[in-house]
Amino acid sequence: MVRPRQSASPMTVRSSFNPDPARVLAAVLDASSAATFSIDLTGHIRSWNAAAARLLGYAPEIICGTHVTTFARSGDFTNLADQARRMATAATGDTQLVAADGRVIRAALTIAPIDDAKGAVIGFLGLARSNEDRLQSELSMQIADARWRALIDAAVDGMIVIDARGSIEAFNPAAERLFGYRGSDVLGQNVRMLMPSPDRERHDQYIARYLETGQQKIIGIGRDVTAVHRDGTCFPVHLAVGEMRVAGEPHFVGIIHDLSARAKLEERVREQASLARLGEMAAVLAHEVKNPLAAVRGAIQVLGKRYSADARDAEVVKEILARLDGLNALVQDLLLFARVPNPRPLPIELRQILAATTELLTEDPLFANVRIQIRGDAPAVAVDPNLLKIAFQNILLNAAQALQGQGPIEVAISGDSTMQVVSIADRGPGIPPEVRERLFQPFFTTKARGTGLGLATVRRLVQAHGGEVSVDNPSHGGTVVTIVLPVTQQPVAPSSGQTA
Asked: Which residues lie closer than 8 Å to 403 by C-beta, 6 or more apart?
C-alpha cells in the first residue's frame, strides 16, 4: 500500500535565501534615494551610498575615512548628534553641505544613533536630502503669489475673491475705495454685505443653485447690478464673475466696475435732450406769448389812464398789470434758463460784481432789515458780469427769504491762480436733505409762488463759465451756497437748448 506523500511543515522547509545582514543593509543603503552615510564616534565617515555620491560628488573611496566636516558644518552635525544621542531617536535640521566642486547645497540633515548589542551608541547614521527643489518650488509659488497680488492691487476696478460659502477671501485696494471698507474689515465676511435687498437675502441661494446645476446666470457673462457703500448709499456697477478651482474647491473672482460716472453722463444726456425740447418751447413762447403780452400791457395802461387815481377800477388795472408783469417775468426766466446767452468775459473782480448786486437789492423792501456782509478778495477773473449778477441776485434773494427779511447774509470770497470761490451763507432754517437733492431740478420749488427756475438758472449760468455750484447745510445751521469758478479755463459757451 502506497501512502500519500505528506507535505513538509513550513517550519521545516529549508530555503536557499540566507543573505549576509551586512550585505542586505548595504543593498538598502545603495538603493535609497537619500544621501546616506555612517559616522563613527570620532566623526569619521565609514560608509557612503550612491545617492550621497550623486548629491555631493564625492566617490566612496575618497570620502570614507575623512572627517564629516569635509562636507558638513561641524556645529550643525554636533548639535544634531548630541540631540539624537540624548533623545535616543533621530534628529533633523536644515543645514548647508559643501559639494566636491565647492558648491553649497541647502539640505535637510537627519542624524540617528547606531547602537551595539548592549545598547551603547557606537556611531551615527546620516541622511541628507537637498532642499533646492523644495525651496525653488516655494520661491516659484512666492513669485506667482507676488505677481498675482501686484496685479490685483494695481487693478483699477474692484476685485473680490470669495469661496463657495460666499466668504470674502481677497479684497483689493480698488474695492476698498469703491465700497469704503478696509480689506481687514470684510475678510471672512459674507459678500452679501455689499448688496442691497433682495439680492442680499438671495445670494447664498444663487451660489447653491449654481453649484448644484452648473447653470450660469452671471458667471462669464457680466451684468449691471447695484452695490451698497459702507455708508448705506447704493451705486450702479458692472459685475463680471469668473470661477477657479483650488484643491478641487470652487472659488469665484468678481470684477466690479463703477458705473456712477456713466449714470451721471446718461442723466446729463437726458437733461440735455429735455433742455433742447424746452429751448424749442421757449422760442415758441417768445414769439407767441411775449410779444402779445407786451401789446396787452400797453392797452391796459392806456385804459388805466382814463380812471382817476382813487377810482376802484384803477386798482383793478394795477392788479392786471402786476399779473402781466409776473407772466412776462416767467417767460423771461424760461428763456434765460433754456437758452443761456454766450458769456462775454471781461477781466473784473468778483467783489465788484457782488457789491453792484448788493446795491441793486437794497432797493427791494425784502432787504430792508437784511445785512449783506462781504469779506475776502481775489484777483480779477475773466467772467461775464451781467450773467453772474443774475446768479448772485437769485442766491441772495433765496437767502433773504430764508431769513424772512431779518438777519445777516455773509459773503466770502477767496481764490488762487487756478480757481476762485464765492460762498453765500445765511442763518435760516436750512434745507432738508430730500429737498436739497432736488434743488437744481427745473420747476421744483418749495415756495407758494415761484417758478422753480431760480437755482436751476444759477447752475446753468455758472456752468456756462466752466464752474460748479453746490448747496450745503453746515453743522451750526443755515445754508451755504458755494460757487467755484476756474481761473485758467476759458468760459464755455453753451449751445442753444443745451447745458453748458
From this structure: 370, 409, 426, 427, 428
Among residues of the chain, what percentage have pLDDT more than 70? Answer: 79
Confidence (pTM): 0.43
Give yes or no for residue 22 having a pLDDT over 80: no
- Amino acid identity of 130? S
* Burial class, 442, CB count within 10 angstroms (exposed 0-12 / middle 13-18 / buried 19+): buried
Neighbours of 256 (CB within 10 A): 22
Number of structural domains in the chain: 4
Rounded-to-integer distance, Cα 389 and Cα 392, Å: 5
Instruction: Give the sheet arrangement for strand 223-228, strand by strand.
Output: 168-171, 158-163, 249-258, 234-246, 223-228
Helices within 366-453 (DSSP H only):
385-402, 433-436
Do residues 428 and 479 make contact, with C-beta atoms less than 8 angstroms apart?
yes
CA–CA gap between residue 217 and residue 209 (Å, rounded): 10
Tell me, yes or no, whether 31 lies in a domain.
Answer: yes
- The count of residues in the chain is 500
Return d(Cα 240, Cα 204) in angstroms, integer: 17
**pLDDT of 382 over the 70 cut:** yes
Three-state DSSP class for 452? coil
Residue 205 within a domain: yes
Yes or no: say if 427 and 403 are a contact pair by the CB < 8 Å rule. yes
**DSSP count for the chain of H helices, then E strands:** 15, 17
The one-letter code for the residue type at 281 is M
DSSP, residue by residue, 6-52:
PPPPGGG---S----HHHHHHHHHHH-SSEEEEEETTSBEEEE-HHH
Spatial CA neighbour of 350 closest among 388, 305, 304, 299: 388
Does 275 share its domain with 248? no
Residue 3 included in any domain: no
> Which domain does 401 fall in, by range?
346-486
The answer to whether 257 and 235 are in contact (CB under 8 A) is no
DSSP letter assigned to residue 497: T
- What are the tens digits of pLDDT across the range 393-444? 889 988 998 888 888 999 999 988 888 999 999 988 888 777 777 777 766 5
Does 466 lie in the same domain as 354?
yes
Q: Among all chains, which residue has been given the C-alpha cell 447653491?
A: 208
How many beta carbons lie within 10 A of that of residue 286, not counting itself?
A: 16
- For residues 350 and 362, give the distance between their C-alpha atoms in angstroms, rounded to a whole number: 19
User: Is the per-residue pLDDT at 326 higher than 80?
Assistant: no
The residue among 234, 258, 282 that closes a domain is 258
CA distances from 355 to 358, 375, 421, 424, 487 (A): 5, 11, 16, 13, 20
- What pLDDT is recorded for position 313? 79
Q: For position 8, what pLDDT does the model report? A: 43
